[in-house]
Design goal:
binds adenosine-5'-diphosphate, five-stranded antiparallel sheet
Length: 476
């Protein structure tokens, strides 16, 4: 058995986004989105704290002025600096306004700023706090207020009043809303960007695997003794993948060479007795020895022996991987080989030959002849009308040989399998057409070694076309 006995994987063109790329991208995009949302949330909290601190220090500053403008006189609170309360921010209602209420601990309001006449009622309450100032949020209708409190005491009478100063948080709300709005608008762009970034990085991460796959595919398709030489550290995943695959190839190569050796020996051993039997049979038949009633049997034995010799010969070529086909530097005239030699052996068959003159190719003519004969015999064997067409035409620097029949045809799913050793088509088995499943594997091996291509297409209305493409030799 030769080295490429196993069905070789056809190189598959992978889509840009494979299932694993997609799955990994979804993970990465989701993780990036979570990080993005957490980042935004923390940022909003920070902005909130910053704004509150800014408003609080503004409120504190204002309250200090207010405290300075109020004094206790004979147990009652008197405005010492009325101008403090006549400033626009305490008279008008705007986003910069200050709403002031000075009240007793029982809730009785002693004084309030003018702008509160045109504003909502801001509840006053008795609040316990240790520090000099206390700040909190108050939700008044739609606008939230930031409110600062302090206490003002009369040291002589021990009476205490609360100063409550509020200002709208409109600016702060606006900024927060803007950030939320921006995030909502940007979300599709961000998801798209994350998708691009994750695709880029995942493709990059998977690149070494694809490289290793390509090298491994090349090894099994061309030469099992080649090895993956991808540069990676033995301790990392890609290095381990390379080493594991190379180990596998070592074992495969060993097994294959054992099988090849056995096949070679067995075929060789069989060839000698078979040739001897054939020679003896020829001698007996030529001598006219057997009586007429035995002659028929002798002819059958001779035919079967020739079949066996053909099979063993094929096995020998396959076992030796047709090395001679690859290394041959002989040039032969393909046109003469077909028109004169091959046509002669098919004289009693219906084969229409249309071959251009003087096409020269490089290789072993005997092996090439076996290829053409195998395909012609198949064409005859697998068609009812027994008609086969053979044409050879050059185009550029190659020749295209087509052998077509109108027979049972080969379904698409079998078009590759028929080149495997010992594979027999389902239909031919069903129809009881005899064969060994070796002819096409030999043909494929020889043509591949000659640096050519052999493939099958459907004929119309039915049947098959075997197409061989080979480089030609220019003899001018
Ligand atoms: P064999 O003909 O001895 O079985 P081959 O290797 O020559 O072996 O062919 C393998 C299989 O391919 C056959 O069993 C048959 O099913 C299919 N095949 C080959 N040539 C043809 C053809 N011209 N038409 C239909 N089927 C074919």
């Amino acid at each position: 058995m030769a080295k490429d006995t196993f069905s070789l994987p056809n190189k598959i063109k992978l889509p840009l986004i494979t299932k694993s790329v997609k799955q990994n991208s979804i993970w990465v995009i989701s993780s990036l989105m979570i990080v993005f949302l957490i980042f935004n949330f923390v940022m909003m909290l920070q902005i909130n704290v910053y704004f509150k601190d800014t408003i609080d220090s503004k409120l504190q500053h204002e309250i200090e002025h207010i405290k300075f403008a109020l004094i206790f006189q004979n147990d009652s609170l008197v405005i010492d600096h009325p101008r403090e309360f006549q400033e626009t921010d305490m008279v008008e209602v705007s986003e910069n306004s200050f709403f002031l209420q000075v009240y007793k601990s029982n809730g009785e309001i002693l004084f309030s700023s003018k702008n509160l006449e045109n504003y909502e009622i801001i509840p006053v309450e008795h609040i316990e706090f240790e520090d000099e100032y206390y700040f909190k949020d108050l939700n008044i209708k739609y606008t939230g207020l930031r409110t600062g409190y302090t206490k003002l005491s009369d040291s002589s009478s021990n009476s205490t009043v609360f100063i409550q100063l509020s200002t709208p948080k409109i600016k702060m709300n606006e900024v927060v809303e803007k950030i939320i709005g921006l995030n909502i608008y940007l979300l599709p762009v961000i998801v798209f960007l994350f998708a691009l970034i994750s695709l880029f990085f995942i493709k990059r991460t998977l690149n070494p695997i694809n490289k290793i796959i390509n090298i491994a595919e090349d090894i099994s398709a061309t030469n099992i003794s080649k090895r993956i030489n991808y540069d990676a550290d033995s301790n990392d995943e890609f290095g381990r993948l390379r080493d594991t695959l190379n180990d596998l190839f070592d074992r495969l190569e060993f097994q294959i060479s054992q099988i090849s050796q056995f096949s070679d020996n067995a075929s060789h051993q069989l060839m000698t007795p078979l040739t001897a039997i054939n020679t003896e049979l020829e001698y007996i038949l030529n001598k006219g020895e057997p009586k007429e009633e035995c002659r028929e049997s002798f002819n059958v034995i001779k035919f079967q022996t020739e079949q066996m010799i053909h099979i063993v010969k094929t096995l020998l070529i396959l076992a030796r991987d047709c090395e001679v086909c690859a290394s041959s530097n002989k040039v032969f005239n393909l046109s003469s080989l077909i028109k004169e030699d091959i046509s002669q052996s098919f004289l009693d068959k219906n084969i229409a030959v249309d071959v251009e003159k003087n096409i020269y190719i490089l290789g072993e003519a005997d092996y090439f002849r076996m290829v053409i004969e195998n395909i012609l015999n198949n064409g005859l064997k697998y068609s009812n009308d027994g008609k086969v067409k053979l044409s050879a035409k050059t185009s550029g620097n190659k020749v295209k040989i087509e052998i077509s029949d109108n027979g049972i045809g080969i379904p698409d799913e079998e078009k590759n399998k028929v080149f495997e050793r010992f594979y027999r088509g389902q239909q031919s088995e069903k129809d009881g057409i005899r064969g060994y499943g070796l002819g096409l594997s030999l043909a494929k091996l020889v043509i591949t070694k000659m640096k050519g291509y052999l493939y099958i297409e459907d004929n119309t209305p039915h049947g098959s076309i075997f197409i061989i493409e080979l480089p030609i030799v220019n003899m001018e």
